[in-house]
Design brief:
With 331 residues, the chain is α+β, with helices and mostly antiparallel strands. It has eight helices and 21 strands.
Length: 331
């Protein structure tokens, strides 16, 4: 959506360099991605051009436009899903991603949170995360998930690993008699004191659904912190009707802005349960462009008025909408 207004424009901020110029690239033009929701190292990955194990920071290497497969000891967790800079275990399920990506609309703005929360309760998402937690070297995912070479080898050599069914009800998946639990109990983990006497250290697959929800929220704010506006508060004279342009800043992101939604707090107030009797228009939105990452506005209010401009940002290859707020005060 882009309109023209024939008045001078003042640029409030300059766009920082994107990740194409950051340290998260390799010599052959490949990109470095990260697998979350927790730091997860020792997971095998393979793209059309790269392969290896996720590193200490959950990093993996891929090229733009490639797909990626994640596995542990031959147990496939994600099969040729689109690779991107920041991935979570929800990205393992392309059918769920399509549903979340469609989004919901509430008061003129798209949301992803409710659909994401529903996806986190999907059996496959829950079971895969629970399985990875049980494979962690020290059985404590609070400090990240690290899977050793011996654990991967044990899975690869266990014929029953091919029977793991991630579509099971999570209660059945974590049952002590389930195939995953039996496999876990038979593995000699690095932290086990004596594998001869207590193979598996009494481990079981246990539920981490609540932890997964919290971690996904953390990852949202991690990415959101790389998208920002500067300054967050701007003061102009009410009589100054020049066009002002906000430019959205990004830091260290490969993905460009694909969509923008822009609305003022005054417009949203009219859609609330108790809208004001008289709509107050402090600023007018002239134009916005996802291609340029800009939002232009002008003053329409009186001295002493103030409002917020809510900017909803969506990145390429990402289902999330990141809300940013710009505050305007009229003098």
């Amino acid at each position: 959506m882009l309109f023209n207004r024939l008045v001078p424009s003042l640029l409030l901020a300059t766009l920082l360099s994107a990740c194409s110029n950051s340290e998260d690239t390799t010599g052959d033009g490949a990109r470095i991605g990260y697998l979350f929701p927790a730091e997860m190292s020792g997971i095998s990955y393979e793209t059309e051009s790269k392969s290896g194990l996720t590193g200490r920071r959950s990093e993996f290497v891929y090229k733009e436009g490639e797909t990626i497969t994640f596995s542990v000891g031959g147990v496939v967790l994600a099969d040729r899903v689109p690779a991107k800079q920041y991935m979570t275990t929800v990205d393992f399920e392309t059918d769920l991603i399509e549903i979340i990506d469609a989004g919901e609309v509430d008061k003129l703005l798209h949301l992803h949170e409710n659909l994401e929360k529903t996806a986190l309760n999907n059996f496959r998402v829950t079971n895969k995360y629970n399985f990875l937690r049980a494979l962690d070297d020290d059985y404590n995912s609070d400090n990240g998930i690290r899977i050793s070479a011996s654990t991967r080898e044990a899975l690869a050599n266990d014929p029953s690993a091919s029977q793991i069914d991630f579509t099971l009800n999570p209660d059945d998946f974590i049952d002590e008699d389930s195939v995953p639990s039996q496999i876990i109990s038979s593995i000699c983990f690095p932290k086990d004191v004596s594998c001869d006497e207590s193979v598996g250290g009494g481990r079981v697959v246990y539920s981490g659904a609540q932890a997964l929800t919290g971690l996904m929220g953390d990852r949202y704010y991690d990415i959101a912190s790389l998208i920002f506006l500067s300054p967050e508060i701007f003061q102009i004279n009410a009589s100054d009707t020049r066009l002002y342009t906000i430019q959205i800043q990004t830091l260290g992101l490969y993905e460009k802005i694909s969509e923008l939604e822009v609305v003022t707090a005054d417009e949203l107030a009219q859609l609330g349960d108790n809208p004001p009797a008289t709509q107050k228009d402090v600023v007018g939105i002239d134009s916005f462009s996802a291609l340029d990452g800009t939002v232009s506005f002008y003053s329409t209010g009186e001295p002493g008025d103030e409002t917020e401009i809510i900017i909803n940002v969506k990145l390429e290859n990402d289902y999330r909408w990141f809300k940013k707020v710009f505050r305007v005060k009229l003098l």
